[in-house]
Amino acid sequence: MSVNQCSTSPTPGPQVATLLLAAATLCACSGDSPARDTNGPTGHEIWFEDVTAESGLGFEHVAYDEQSFRMPECVGAGIALIDYDGDGDLDVYCLQSGDPAATGGATSTNRLFRNDGSGRFEDVTEGSGAGDRGNGRGAAVGDYDQDGDLDLYVTNLGPNALLQNNGDGTFSDVTTEAGVGHPGWGASAAFFDADQDGDLDLFIANYVNWSLGAELPCTGAGGGLDYCNPTNFDAPAQDVLFMNEGGGTFIDRSEAAGLSSAFGNGFGVVVDDFDGDGWQDVYVANDGTANQLWINGQDGTFKDRSLLSGCAVNMNGAVEAGMGVAVLDLENDGDPDLLMTHLRSESNTLYVNRRGVFRDRTLNAGLHAASLQFTGFGLGVADFDQDGNLDLYVGNGRVQRWTMTFDPEKPYAEPNQLFRGLGGAKFEEVKPQGGVEEAYIGSTRGLALGDLDGDGDIDIVLSENGERTRVLRNVGAEGNWIGFRVVTPEGQPLQDVIGARLRVDFGDEVRWRTVTGAYGFCSANQIHAHVGLGEAATIDSVTVHWPDGGEPEAFGPFDAGASHLLVRGQGGGQVPGTQK
Amino acid sequence: MISTSRKRLPCLALFLTLSCGQPGPIDPVQPQDEASLGPLLKVTVDEYLTRVEAQPASAATHGRLGLLYEANHLTSEAARSYANALALDPDDPTWNFRLAIAKITMGDFEEGSARLLTALDEMPRSAAAHHRAGYLYMDQGEMERALTSFRSAVALAPDGAAPLAEASLGEALVAVDRPAEAIEPLENALKAAPNLKPALYAYGLALRALGRIDQAEIALEAGLGAERIMIPHASGVGLQELGMGYGQRNTYATSLSGKGETARAIRVLEHLLEYYPDDEVVVNNLAGVYMQLEDWDQAKLLLADLTASGTDRFGAWLNLAITQKSLGNIAEARKAIDHAVVLLPGQARGQIERAEICMIQRDAAGALESATRVCELEPENPRAFLLAAEANTRLGLDEAACAAFEQVNRLNASFLPSRVSAAALYLSAGRLADAERLILEAEEIDPSEARVIQIRSRLQQVKRGVR
After folding, report:
1. Residue B211 CA to chain centroid, in angstroms?
2. Which of A98, A122, A393, A566 has the lowest CB atom count within 10 Å?
3. CA distance readout (Å), A562 to A281, A296, A485
4. Which of B14, B11, B31, B47 is nearest to B242 (CA)?
C-alpha cells in the first residue's frame, strides 16, 4: 500500500522513508467515503456496498463440472490480496479449483487482477506467469527471497506451487528449485520467521489424505446423497514446516520441528506470539479434530500446547469443525486472542488469551446463538467502522443440505454476517445481515480484507464456491483511522516485516496489531496494519516489537487519516512502559 | 434475551380452542422435498403418513410422525407435526416439549424458549426439561438462569442421569469463573461416571484455573472429544432407531454391534440392503458384524464377492485381509492387504495389518516397510514401533531395532517385552550400560519374569568376565 493514499504516482524505494503526505490532501481523501446510511428502521445499517459488477473482477470459481458429492467440491478456495507490482495498491489473486476428478489440473487457471488504484481491476494473468493450473485452494503472500517484492505460495489439492515475483509484473514458478512442492491437500499457509534469522519460513496446514478412490457415499438430512465430512475418511494429513535456507531454497523440517506428534484435518493457520516470549507461534484450526497451538521452542522445535492452554477444543471439551481462524486482541492487553468459524450447530468460537492461557468466551461475546445456524468459513477481523473497536465479518455457506433453506434454488447457500464490536470481547450482529442492503445468499469460502480503493477503510473480497467472486466496498466507516507499513532498515530492499507487533497509544487507549496477512480461510489479507481511532485525530506513539527479538522502537506521534511507513532503525521515541 | 412470557402460549391455545371448538382431524405434514429423501426413509415416511391419514385426529400419530421427522433431521416438518399433535391434545406436555426442542434446533430461540418454559410449567419435576433449559440459557449467555436450571436438574435427576446434570452444573460454574464451586458437582459426576467426558473436560478447566496443572492436564486429555449429552426424556427414547437415512442406519447398526446386539445389527443391515442392493458400505458393515461374531466363513463370503466386484473400498480389502488371516489363508490375506495399502497408503491401520501379515509370512523386509510407514503416520503409536523393532531384529538390524524398542519404551512406561528385548540386544552388542538401564526398568515392572532374570544373570556374567 502506498504511503500516500491519494498520490497518483507513488514512488517506491528508500526515499519513501520520508513522509510525503500533506494532512490536507489526506483529509480530502478520507472525507470522500460516504457516511453510513442509518435511514430506515432502527438498527438498519449499511456498512458495505456490493460493487462486484463495476469492479472488473470477473472471476468465476468452478467447484465441479457435474456435482458428484466428492468432498473437495464443497470446500472451495481462498483469495489473496497482494501488491504484486509495488505500486501501492492491492491487487487480487483468485484461486481456481475445478473438478476434483479432472486430471491435469483445472481447465482454467488461477487469475491475477491488477488494481488501478481506485478499486477497479483488470485481468492481467496472461503472460504474468501467475496462472497456476493446480486445483487451487489457498494462498500465502510474503517476500521469501528478500528482494523487495511479494511472492505467492499457492496450496493445491495436489502439489503446491511457489511463484517468485520477478519484480517486473511477472512470476516464475520456482517450486522445484525451492523444494516446496508438497503434494496432498494444502489449505491455509503462512509465511513467518520461525527461527528469527530474518527470512521467511513457511507453514502449511494440510487437510485430509484424500483420493478419488477413498471417496465414500455420505448422506445428509433426509437420507439423500450429500458431502462427507473429513472424519468419515479418518485420514488427517500432517502439516508442514519449510525452513528458509536462503538462496531461494527451503528444507522440510516438519519432523524435526515435532509436527508429526499432533495433527488433524488442518484448515486455518495463524501466526503470532501467543505466549509473549517474543517468538512466533502457530495456531492451526482443524476440521473435526482438536486444534494445535504450536509454541515455538526457540530451538527449531515446536510443542503443541493447545490442550493445557485451553484452545484445543471448546469449553465443553467438544471438538469442532474449525474452518477459518483469525487472531485479534480484543482486550487490548497485548495477548493475541483467537476466533474461529465452525459448522452449523456449532457456534463460532472465541478464545480470549491471558498470558498464554485461553478461555472460551463465546457465550459472553454474543457470538454463540447468532452463529449456530450457519456454517462459517472465511472470517475477517477489522475495525470496519473505525470506531476503535474491532468488528467481525463472517463468510457463510453450507457443506451439507438442511431442512431449512435460505434459497430453494441453492440448498448450500447462506447469508454472511457482520458483527459490530462493542469493546472488550463483545459483539452484536448488524442488520441487515452482512451489513449490505440486500443480503447475498451464497456459499462464501475464503475472504480477504484490505483497502482496495485507497480511501483508508477496509474493504472485502469474497471467494464464492462455484460462483463469481464478489467485492464489497466499505461505505460505513465514520471514525478516524491510521495505517502502518513496517519495513526493513534503509539500505535493504523494502520488505514488510511480517510478524512485527505494533502497540498504538492514543490518549488513554491502546491497540495492538500484528503485521500479518495470514488469517481467515485459505486467504491472504492486506499485510499492513490498520487501526480505527474513533474520534481521535492523532496517536501519541506506535511501538514496534520486532519478530526477531530486537529492541522495540517507538515512532510518532502521527496524524490520523494516513498510512505511515515505519522503518526499522528510525524509531526514536520512548517505548511505553520504559524509562529513557 | 429469552422470552419469559409464560402466559402467552396457554392463552394462545385457549383462543384457538375457543375459536375452533373441539380439535378436528388434521392432515399430516408432508415432507418439503420428497425427492431428496433416501428410499428407506421415503418408504417409512409413507407408512407413517398413512397411519396419520387413518387417524387424523390422533395426537399420538401426528406426534410419532414428528419423531420420525426429527430423527431424520427434517426439523421443520417435525415442528409442524408436533404443533399438530399439540393442537389435538394440548394437555399432553410431551408435544410442547418436543416442539420446543425442534424450534431451538431451527434457531427460533424465542418461540423455543417460550415453549420450553411452558413445558417446564407442565412438567415441573422433569429433569430433562430443566436440563434443556439450562443449555438454552447458557447458549444465550444468561448464565445465572442456566445455573438455576442445572441446579433443578441435579435435584430432580434420577440416579442414572444425575452425573449429566452435575457435569452441566460444573461446566456452567467454570464458564462464569467459579472453578472452586465447580469442583464438587464435577467430582460427584465423575464418582458416578468416571469416564463422562463433559465432566472430565470441565474438571480439567476448573483444576487449571485453580493452578492444579498436572491434574488438569490429565483430566483435559481424558475429556477431549466430549459431546453435549442431554438427559433423556421418555418422549425421545428410540429416536436413534427411527433414523432412516442411509448413513443413520449404518451408524445405528454399528452402535448396535458395538453394544453386542449383533443379531439386531445384522437385521438392520440386511433390511438396508433391500433398499441399497449390493451397496459396498452396507455389505462391508455386514461383513464387519460377522467378523465381530468370528463367523469368518460368512464374512469371507460377503467380502470375497465385494472385492471381486472391483471395489476400491479400502475397508473392504482390509476386512478381507483380516478375515483371510483368521482363516489361516495367509497368502490370500497378503494379496488383500497389499491391495488395501495401494488404495490408501496413508492409512495406518492398513499398514499395521500388512506388517503383521508379512511377519507371519516371515517377510521381514515387507514388515519393516509397512511398520516404518506407520511410525511416520502415527509417531505416538507404540505398536508401530514394536512392529518395526521386531522386523529389524529379524533382519539383523540390531541398532535400528534398539532404537525402535526405545520408542516403544518411551510411549509405554510399563511394557516389559520391549525392555527385555532391547536389553538383550544391547547385551549382545556390548552396550552394558544401556542393557543395565533397561533391565532395571524391567525389574521394576516384573522382577520375577523369567526373561528378566535370565538377562540379569547374563549381564552379571558378562560384567564379571569384563572385570
Report:
1. 31
2. A122
3. 31, 35, 11
4. B47
* Nearest one of B216, B221, B194, B205 to B172, comparing CA atoms: B205
Are residues B32 and A403, on separate chains, in Cβ contact within 8 Å? yes
Q: Is the pLDDT of residue A19 over 60?
A: no
Q: Which residues 6+ apart lie within 8 Å of B203 measured at CB?
A: B170, B182, B183, B186, B187, B190, B219, B223
User: Cα angle at B279 between B278 and B280, to 5 degrees?
Assistant: 105
Q: Name the residue with cell 438498527.
A: A43
What are B100-144's pLDDT values in tens digits? 999 988 888 889 999 999 999 999 999 999 999 999 999 888 999
Main-chain phi, psi angles of B352, to 5 degrees: -65, -45
Q: Would you state the pLDDT for residue B310? A: 86
In terms of residues, how long is chain A? 580
Rg (CA), chain B: 30
* C-alpha span between B250 and B283 (Å, rounded): 10
C-alpha cell at A428: 452484536
How confident is the model over A464-501, as pLDDT tens digits? 999 999 999 999 999 999 999 999 999 899 999 999 99
Cell of residue A213, nine digits: 478412490
C-alpha cell at B61: 400419530
Indicate the residue type of B148.
Answer: T
Q: Do A260 and B376 touch (CB under 8 A)?
A: yes
Query: Which cell numbers in the block locate residue A200?
Result: 521467511
Q: What are the Cα distances from residue A420, in Å, to A391, A431, A535? A: 5, 10, 17
User: Considering only alpha carbons, which residue of chain B is nearest residue A288?
Assistant: B225
d(CA B105, CA B271): 30
Phi-psi group of A174: left, alpha or beta (phi > 0 → left; psi -120 to 50 → alpha; rest → beta): alpha
In degrees and rounded to multiples of 5, residue B397 shows phi and psi of -95, 75
**Distance from C-alpha of B167 to C-alpha of B190, rounded to nearest angstrom:** 8
Among the partner residues B38, B139, B279, nearest to A222 by beta-carbon distance: B38
Q: How far is CA B252 from CA A497, B196, B332, B356, in A?
A: 54, 21, 32, 31
8 A C-beta contact, residue A376 and residue A395: yes
- Residue among B32, B40, B228 whose CB faces A318 most closely: B228
Determine, for residues A219 and B32 on separate chains, whether the beta-carbon distance falls below 8 Å. no
C-beta separation of B344 from A209 below 8 A: yes
Instruction: Give the gap in angstroms from C-alpha B136 to the nearest C-alpha of chain A.
Output: 9
**What does the DSSP 8-state code read for residue A120?**
-
Say whether B245 and A221 touch across the interface (CB within 8 A).
yes
Which triple of cell numbers denotes residue B20?
Answer: 375452533
Identify the burial level of B297 via C-beta atoms within 10 angstroms of its C-beta, where 0-12 means exposed, 13-18 middle and 19 or more buried. Answer: exposed
Please give the C-alpha separations between residue B406 and each of A256, B356, B387, in angstroms, as whole numbers.
Answer: 18, 20, 13
Grid cell 528449485 is found at A177
Return the closest-CA partner of residue B327 out of B344, B304, B343, B350.
B304
User: Crossing angle of helices B330-343/B314-326, nearest 10°?
Assistant: 160
DSSP B82-97: HHHHHHH-TT-HHHHH
A224: chain B residues, CB-CB within 8 Å: 36-38
Q: Does A315 touch chain B (CB under 8 A)?
A: yes
| Residues in contact with B211: Cβ distance below 8 Å, sequence separation at least 6, in sequence order | none
Please, are residues B455 and B424 in contact by the beta-carbon 8 Å criterion? yes
Q: Find chain A residues with C-beta within 8 A of B247's C-beta.
A: 218-219, 223
A422 touches chain B (CB under 8 A): no
Helix, coil or strand: residue A23:
helix
Of B73, B217, B281, which is closest to A217 when you measure between CB atoms?
B281
Say how far apart CA B81 and CA B100 lie, in whole Å. 12
Say whether pTM exceeds 0.90: no
User: Which of A224, A235, A403 lies at the smallest CB-CB distance from B38?
Assistant: A224
* ipTM above threshold 0.90: no
